[in-house]
Structure formats: structure tokens, C-alpha cells
Specification:
heterodimer; A: 353 residues; Rossmann fold; OB fold (Dihydrolipoamide Acetyltransferase, E2P); 6-stranded mixed sheet; 5-stranded antiparallel sheet; 8 helices; B: mainly alpha; 12 helices; globular
């Protein structure tokens, strides 16, 4: 089912939760809403579902205006960050509940629940109550309820956020094909850029109540159209520095360097340079680079990676490195900027190169 | 190896609690046990009687009648107050400025001393000058709680409902507020009716607080004394003589200290037993 949001807005009192937004999601695709907390992901999903009426604008399902159609008539399934199941229903009854509301026969319900339970590995615990399940099993039950409903639009609001790391990884792999096989349009909200990349599909980068950019996930990551969407889609945060290109080369964050890489062909003028942390390394870059020395403020080692936060004049840089690099706060380190990979934006934040 | 340190000063630290519990519970209870197996005519002269008082109380029709009245009263007020409390809690706003207004209004009756409630309702219900009594009588309904047992019961029940439904409301409201909004959204998406939301989400989620509410109301109403005492002193006749009123009549009216002590113990055991039974049965199917 194609879902279109047309100039949609949501205001509550004097606060704007969603500023005027257009978004069109094509049938059968896996879509991601990426943004920090309070970016408006949940509000936008509630608008899509019909749990919230837009202050202005229209919601279209397959071209049909459903703005004023109540949620229970819309063929929508919703899975939340909290594990929401009927507390005194068994797992079986929980999964069957949307079908019972639809008035399906006993045999139909049994035929529908069994394969879904099998798929989500819930078959051995069909007769238990939600309170007797682990968090992962509870969320599987909620997912099974959404799945069995065969809704046209499936909304998943950070469904894995409350699960532990291992389970999250496992379910994340299983999720996209589950709903894709049904031909449903899926919308998945997450605050983690890495999760968006792992899930693939299409991503809408959200910031402060706006969809900043929408596109294929990989493309959006590699070629963000603005500083804002580059910031949303970057973890650790992207380094954004003022840059001036003139006859002598470039001035980045107040320091003069020779122009190379992405900066070579720039017309003279003022810009912003975006350098992702893994394109700013302690090791020398293959190809064009700019090297400078900064003093270490914080160093974090995650096991396979070292994050170095360093300062030069008034600017903080984040560098992401493979392997363990033991540096201490106060040390002077040489950082190599991979200028071929740098993103260049104009001073308004629009992408130039 | 772990070296255990022994410090006898610890006894000093728990002493206040021991003293408090001793004077509050243990010593009074043992005194009652002491009285319940002996006969005394004052002057600290005691005669051993064994279980005679217990037998006497258990076989007395006066005790049976008081117990039946007590069970009937507690049953009636539970049947009224629990559903009414839940109903009111469901109607209360979930957010906004009216929440605190409602909560304060609900808490008001709970802040009024029991004998004041009794006195208030006594005056309110007087057939000749009370607003309630006068109104009922002028509507052609014969209402006089000092003469008519039904009117006396009606007044005592009404008084208790007015006084204590708020407690159920507050507990149920607390239970309702702890349900995440996502449950209601999920139910809405499923197209669940208002009744289904109540039956399958709100009620199960309120089960624990409602159990506490029933227990508190059961224990409190089983010990009701002040309200009927202020209203009619247990009358008319013995119509509102509940267990505690009967107990006080026996102990302080007739000075039958032995039977009164035996009766207190039986009374205490009934409350303990019923509370334990209720709690065990309702919590039997609780997982986690």
C-alpha cells in the first residue's frame, strides 16, 4: 500500500510537534524513520496510523484520503518500544486477538496463528501468560500480533530498544523479511544510525519535527543532501567545520592548509566541511589528505575501535580508528583528514560536493 | 576467610523497635490471652477457667447474631464500594489541571475523624431537623433510624460508603495511572470496545491494587465501631450491634472481662483467617 503524507502538520497547543511535511512511502517497502528522541518519529507514526489527527494536511492510503478514517478501519498494525500484550491472555489468545475482533472463525484463527507462532519461535509457549515470558518473547508476541493481522501498514516504534544486545541483533535480522513477505508497507523508527544501515531499505532522516531528507538508506548515508541529514545519520557525530577556499588553498577551522581532494575544484568562497569520524584517523590516509596536530581531550576504546576526541584552537574533532590506540588526554596527536571523502556544504547547509 | 565481627551494640540499636512492638502489640495481646482463660472479680484475684469462655462465646447466639450482622455489613459495603470506587476512578481525568482538584476532593472524606463522620451523619439524617431525614420524610418515605432497623442499616452503610469509597477510588486511580498509554493505543488499533479495554487491560492491570483495596476495606469494615456507636449505639434494639460494639458492651458494659477477652481473640483470628484466605486465593494465579 502506498502511503502519502501531504503537507501534514501537527500542533498541540502552541507547540509544533510536526512541521509541514511531505512524505511518500511506496507499497511493500521497508522504511526507516531515523532521528534522536523528540525528533518527531513517534508523532509522525501516530499520524500515519490515525491515532492522531493532523492539524493540517492529508493522509492518503493508495491515493484514497483517510485523514478522517478512524484507526480501527485503516488496516494498521503497531508495535511499541514497551512490550504491549493483553496481560491476562495467553500468548495464543494474544496473537489471535486481532483476528477475533475481525470475526474470523476458530479454524481460520488456528490456521493463521500456528505458522506465525512457528516463525517467531513462540510455539512452545503458546499457553503461557505474557508475565511468564522473557522480554524478547514478549516482544515476539507483540510482533506476532502485528504479523497475523496482515495489515497494509505496519508501524514499528523502536521495537528493539528495550531488548538486550544479543536479542536485538537476532530480531533485527529477522524483522525486514517477515513483513516484506506479506507485501506490507513497513515503517520502523530508530534513533541509531547503525541500526538503520543494518536494516537497509529507505530512510527518512528526522530532526526537530521535520523530515530533513528521504531516500534509499545507503545513498542517504553516503550522499546526504544537507548538514542536518548528515548529522542525523552519523554516529559518532560528524565533524562539521567552517571552510574557506581561496587562491592560497583552504582555511579549515581557522588553520590554513593546501587544497586537495574534494576541496581542489571548489570555487573560491565560504563553506562548511563535513568529515565523518572514520575519515579522520591517526593513521595516514591512502590518497589525498590534510594532516594537523591537535591535543587529546578524551580517548575511548571499545575493543575493536578507538575514539579520540581532540581539540585544536576552539574546535573539537572526533576521530574514529580501527584497533586499539592508547593515547592519553593532553597528548598531541597528528590527525589525517581524508579529503577525498569530505562532504562540502554551503553556509546554509546545502550539499555542494 | 571472612572474619565475623560481633558487636553487642547492635542490640541497643534495635531496642526502640523491640520496646515499641512489645508495648504496642505483644504485651496487650498477652494480657488479653491472660484474661481469656481466667475469671476475676477485681483486686488482682484470678481463678483459672481454661477454655470455658471460648466455649461460652462460641455457643452464644448473641455472638452468632453479631457475627452474621458483621458479615452482612462487610459484604454489602464491599459490593458497593469496590465497583463504585473503580467506576469513579475510571471517570477521573488522566491529566490536566482537574487531576489535583479531583484528588483533593476525593481525599477529603478520608481526612475526617470517624466520630465526626458519625456525628455529621447523625445530624444530617435526623428525621425532624436533618436535611436527609426531613427530605425523605416529606417525600412520603417513612424514615427514622432510631426506630426502624432498615433505616439504621441504610444510614450506617451510606455513611461508610461516603467515608471510604474514596480510598478505593485513590487506589484504583493509582493503578490506572500506571498503565502505559501504548496499551490504550494498541487496543484502539485492534478496534477494542470500551468494555473490552476495561475487561482485558484496565481490570487485569488493576488487580494488585484492587486486592489491596478489598483487603483494607474488609479489615476496616470488620472492625467498624465509631459510626454505629455515635449514630444509635448499636440500635435500634441490637440491629446495628456489630462485633466490636458487642465486644465493648460485654467488656465495659457488663464487665465480663473473661468472655470479652475470649471474644477479642476469636474476632482477631476471624479477621486474620479471612484476610489470609482472600489474599492467597487472589494471588494464587499470579506469575512473576
Amino acid at each position: 500500500m502506498t502511503l502519502e503524507l501531504e503537507k501534514i502538520q501537527l500542533r498541540v497547543g502552541a507547540d509544533s510537534h510536526i512541521y509541514e511535511t511531505d512524505l511518500s512511502l511506496e507499497a511493500g517497502r521497508f522504511n526507516i524513520l531515523l532521528g534522536t528522541t523528540l525528533a518527531g518519529k513517534t508523532s509522525l507514526m501516530r499520524l500515519m496510523a490515525g491515532l492522531e489527527k493532523p492539524t493540517a494536511g492529508r493522509v492518503l492510503f493508495n491515493g484514497r484520503d483517510v485523514t478522517h478514517v478512524p484507526v480501527q478501519q485503516r488496516s494498521v498494525a503497531f508495535v511499541y518500544q514497551q512490550f504491549i500484550n493483553y496481560p491476562n491472555f495467553t500468548v495464543y489468545d494474544n496473537i489471535a486477538s486481532p483476528l477475533r475482533v475481525q470475526g474470523k472463525s476458530r479454524a481460520q484463527i488456528e490456521a493463521a496463528v500456528a505458522p506465525v507462532a512457528e516463525l517467531l519461535k513462540l510455539t512452545p509457549m503458546l499457553h503461557r501468560l505474557p508475565s511468564e515470558l522473557s522480554g524478547g518473547q514478549q516482544q515476539r508476541t507483540a510482533l506476532a500480533r502485528a504479523l497475523v493481522k496482515r495489515a497494509d501498514l505496519v508501524l514499528l516504534d523502536e521495537p528493539l530498544a528495550n531488548l538486550d544486545y544479543k536479542l536485538r541483533e537476532e530480531l533485527r535480522e529477522e524483522l525486514p523479511p517477515l513483513f516484506a513477505d506479506q507485501g506490507a508497507t513497513v515503517v520502523y523508527a530508530t534513533s541509531e544510525p547503525v541500526e538503520a544501515l543494518l536494516l537497509g531499505g529507505y530512510t527518512a532522516a528526522m530532526s526537530q519535527g521535520r523530515v530533513v531528507e528521504f531516500g534509499e538508506t545507503q545513498t542517504l548515508y553516503r550522499n546526504p543532501g544537507s548538514v542536518l541529514s548528515a548529522r542525523v545519520f552519523s554516529d559518532p557525530p560528524i565533524n562539521v567545520m567552517p571552510l574557506t577556499r581561496d587562491a592560497q588553498g583552504v582555511v579549515i577551522a581557522g588553520e590554513r592548509y593546501p587544497a586537495n581532494g574534494a576541496f581542489t575544484a571548489l570555487p573560491f568562497g565560504d563553506y562548511h566541511a563535513g568529515i565523518r569520524p572514520h575519515h579522520l584517523t591517526l593513521a595516514d590516509a591512502k590518497g589525498d589528505s590534510i594532516a594537523f596536530t591537535a591535543s587529546v581531550r578524551v580517548s575511548e576504546i571499545t575493543g575493536s575501535e578507538s575514539l579520540v576526541h581532540a581539540r585544536l584552537h576552539d574546535h573539537d574533532w572526533v576521530s574514529q580508528n580501527h584497533g586499539v590506540h592508547a593515547v592519553n588526554p593532553g597528548d598531541a596527536v597528528t590527525l589525517h583528514m581524508h579529503t577525498n571523502r569530505a562532504l562540502v556544504f554551503d553556509r546554509q547547509g546545502r550539499r555542494i560536493h | 576467610m571472612i572474619q565475623k565481627t560481633h558487636n553487642q551494640k547492635a542490640w541497643f540499636l534495635v531496642l526502640p523497635v523491640i520496646v515499641l512492638v512489645a508495648f504496642n502489640a505483644v504485651i496487650p495481646l498477652m494480657t488479653v490471652v491472660n484474661y481469656s482463660v481466667q475469671e476475676t472479680f477485681g483486686d488482682n484475684v484470678f481463678f483459672w477457667e481454661g477454655v470455658k469462655w471460648f466455649e461460652q462465646v462460641l455457643h452464644s447466639s448473641r455472638f452468632h447474631d453479631a457475627l452474621l450482622r458483621q458479615l452482612a455489613f462487610t459484604g454489602i459495603i464491599l459490593v458497593i464500594e469496590i465497583p463504585l470506587g473503580v467506576l469513579i476512578a475510571l471517570q477521573m481525568p488522566r491529566k490536566g489541571p482537574w487531576v489535583s482538584v479531583c484528588l483533593v476532593l476525593m481525599a477529603l472524606p478520608l481526612l475526617i475523624p470517624w466520630n465526626v463522620v458519625g456525628a455529621m451523619w447523625n445530624i444530617f439524617a435526623l428525621p425532624d431537623i436533618g436535611l436527609l431525614g426531613k427530605t425523605l420524610n416529606s417525600l412520603g418515605i417513612a424514615y427514622n433510624f432510631t426506630r426502624d432497623p432498615t433505616a439504621a442499616w441504610f444510614t450506617v452503610v451510606l455513611m461508610d460508603v461516603w467515608h471510604w469509597t474514596s480510598l478505593v477510588v485513590l487506589l484504583a486511580y493509582a493503578g490506572l495511572s500506571s498503565i502505559p498509554d501504548a496499551y490504550y493505543q494498541a487496543a484502539k488499533i485492534d478496534g477494542a470496545s470500551r468494555w473490552a479495554v476495561f475487561r482485558y487491560i484496565q481490570l487485569p492491570k488493576m488487580k494488585r491494587v484492587l486486592t489491596i483495596a478489598v483487603l483494607l476495606r474488609f479489615m476496616d469494615s470488620f472492625m467498624i465501631y465509631t459510626e454505629p456507636f455515635v449514630l444509635t449505639g448499636g440500635g435500634p434494639g441490637n440491629a446495628t450491634t456489630f462485633l466490636s460494639i458487642d465486644l465493648v458492651k460485654t467488656a465495659l458494659g457488663q464487665f465480663d472481662l473473661g468472655p470479652a477477652a475470649a471474644m477479642s481473640l476469636i474476632y482477631f483470628l476471624i479477621i486474620l483467617l479471612l484476610s489470609w484466605l482472600f489474599y492467597t486465593v487472589t494471588m494464587r494465579n499470579e506469575g512473576d
